[in-house]
Design goal:
Layout: E1 4-9, H1 18-32, E2 36-42, H2 46-53, E3 58-62, H3 85-99, E4 103-107, H4 113-119, E5 125-129, E6 141-144, E7 163-166, H5 175-187, E8 195-199, H6 208-216, E9 226-231, H7 238-247, E10 251-256, H8 261-266, E11 270-274, H9 278-284, E12 289-292, H10 299-307, E13 312-313, H11 319-327, H12 332-343, H13 350-366
Parallel strand pairs: 1-2, 1-4, 2-3, 4-5, 5-6, 6-7, 8-9, 8-11, 9-10, 11-12, 12-13
Amino acid sequence: MNKKILLRVDASPEIGTGHMMRCLALANEAKQRDWECIFVLRDPDDEIVKYITSSSHEVEKLMSVNGKKIADNATAHSNWLPVSQIQDANDTVEVIDDFKPDWIIVDHYALDAKWFSVVEKTSSKILVIDDLGDRNLICDLLLDQNLGASADKYDDKLPSKCRLLLGPTFALLRREFREWRQRSLERRLSINIENVLITMGGVDLENYTLQVLKSIAKSKYSMKCAFTVITGRSYPFSKALEEFINESDLMVSILSNVENMAEIMSKSDLCIGAAGSTSWERCCLGLPTISLAIADNQLGVLAELEKKKCTLVSSIDNIRADFERLLSQDNKQKLRQLSFNSANLTDGNGIEMLLNELEQSCDEYAV
């Protein structure tokens, strides 16, 4: 009988798509090992459901009823959940009882020990994927793929039995990044910047994509580069972006809903990108990056990456100056440094190592 994984995760304009994407990467790799996976999402967009089911995974939708949210112990991200944690937990348990997973994987900042105290009564083991360390959790295994993650971050927030997997070594990257890594690193031997990638996440509600392009267009180096802009399936400003590009002299290609991100990154010389889970994709490929924080929960990641000299941290106000700084002839050593340091953080084998942990635990439990 195939082993089973249930993944409780959400995606929305407010939440973004990063949590769903890293869970999908894990599920796709698990499927290659004959695991059966089901996604449990609350009020999901039809396009998100279609995207997950296109990878041959089942989706169970938890639909909310309009009305006032029941009072609940609040988390810093409680606005991500339109119902109480108890209701969400009870709804999830119904799916668990029917599916009977070996592992429940939770990637959701709005859920804390109140939710887990209900779900832990099932017979399944629980893995939490987290980045914050800001709330009490109940789980058997916790994965925090961020640079600087430590046991101290979760001190007094986890059961004593919980095992920790910490750091970018465990970054949940799709197989394509492992496959393109060597070719990408070989490309870094050349440090001429001709192809620039701009990617601001799957939603980009503040339209950082267009703000970056407008700033870069004023640079004396802008006409020396070809730009590839990647937008997500939920990007709401496509018309304004296209109008600006048509009126400018920039060489820009717009790609949406790409399926070959690793290849695109590997063939880029520089990235201007939002922080978040895609930071580890760029690190795996050694892609020099100017990073911007587009959400408060990305600030910690950026601070650690900057400390390790793995990225150049910028802002909309400074992006033009930082872009010119890296393209100037006297900063080639800086590009080499960014590429080398970032590539040493992760080799793209995180999912494989995590699945080994899950399988080993199942085997031990069976014995």
